[in-house]
Amino acid sequence: xxxRIKKLKIxxxxxxxxxxxxxxxxxxxxxxxxxxxxxxxxxxxxWINIPLPSDLHSLFDHYEEIALAFFAVEYLLRLWVISDFWxxxxxxxxxxxxxxxALFSALKPKLRWMLKPYSLIDLLTxxxxxxxxxxxxxxxxxxxxxxxxxxxxxxSLLIAVxxxxxxxxxxxxxxVLWIVTISLTVYIYEYNAGNKAFHSLFEALYWGIxxxxxxxxxxxxxxxxxxxxxxxxxxxxxxxxxxxLTATFSATLINRMNILKGExxxxxxxxxxxxxxxxxxxxxxxxxxxxxxxxxxxRPVVLITEMERSELGVDISKYILYKRGDFTKESxxxxxxxxxxxxVVILGExxxxxxxxxxxxxxxxxxMLVKTLNPRAKIYVEVLHDENAExxxxxxxxxxxxxxxxxIGRLIFTSISTPGSAKLIENLLTKEGVLRKVLVKELxxxxxxxxxxxxxxxxxxxxxAVEKSGNLIVSPADDLELSDKDYVFFISGRV
Length: 495
What we know:
10% strand, Rossmann fold, 6-stranded parallel β-sheet
């Protein structure tokens, strides 16, 4: 798969399936609009039972064609992005060597997706593309169930309203009381004055609502002094209350959009994501590499720091989720679903008034919290003092420890003693796909390293190390025995 197609597929996945995609909310609102508006003719025919004007009927027929095309394209795109067919097929063929099994393993994720309730509803929704099915109104009505697929937009709106529920409720109740009280009072004055326009309570309430929202149509007007005075009060107070309601609701929605961009976001539904705790020079390099390689588009990446976004010194991509908070607090870690994270990177974030030892202590506290909340996560830590490295590796059981400045010092010395080696190491670290780590059994059945070496050399790959039970063996002997749990590091491409 070419890089452009891969990027397109990842972008579409984030748009259609991912809860963390930056455009997911906008897409859900648009799709929700298509679902609701295209269902109007069926609702009118079945429930209201009013014949449509011929021009409107023709308009809805053309709109139906557009809606069906939209639903069909959406269904096919969802089916495409849900898994990588060719990658799964090649992997299945390498493992089993059987064409039928490889084909089934490639189709399995897509078939599993097709049998999900939402997917079945999507399929039934596009059946009216075939004209014989258009006579079945139930199929057209079923598309209303698609509303539940786009609950992300509805849920975001409800959360926004819920956050400001007290003040919104107060304004709405005050507005209703204002309309009802003045409308009833005007109704009493106008009815007794013989104003035939106010001949019922319904007409009075209708007048009050229309007056406060549009300053009246002129079809119903008060004729008494009291009625005109109260109408003026209704309009003046209505402007204030409606403006307050609009301003509050708008501010709430804007605040919610900022939250969806990452400010204070509770990401409790994330899974298999990467969490970066803290910020340092190393973090800047790490984030730049994540953006460059597109890892942030393949799966969620979360950054937790007490620093402002503008202070980071690097432009965080749209797909990196930013959470401002103290990562040493359990509640903050739980808000980013740390219990479901695949990897956690803890950086030595310096703060004013904190010594380097205190920074390492905060790193240790965070590592212990992560280990408690998610024992399966791979934890990578940066320490400022090398004497603390042993504590992290042996007592805290982290995956890897990086000592601040030590790697750079060794790289400089290696470059001096072995000219050109620094360039080699830089290429290995920075070029995408050059250095890879793969489970041996995924490549085939090999009893010794010599057999694996011969196989990889045929494919222009160079193995350089084997990992056995967490221990790294560099340049192993040919007679080294391999097991299904061993990993191999190899170089691919041009260094």
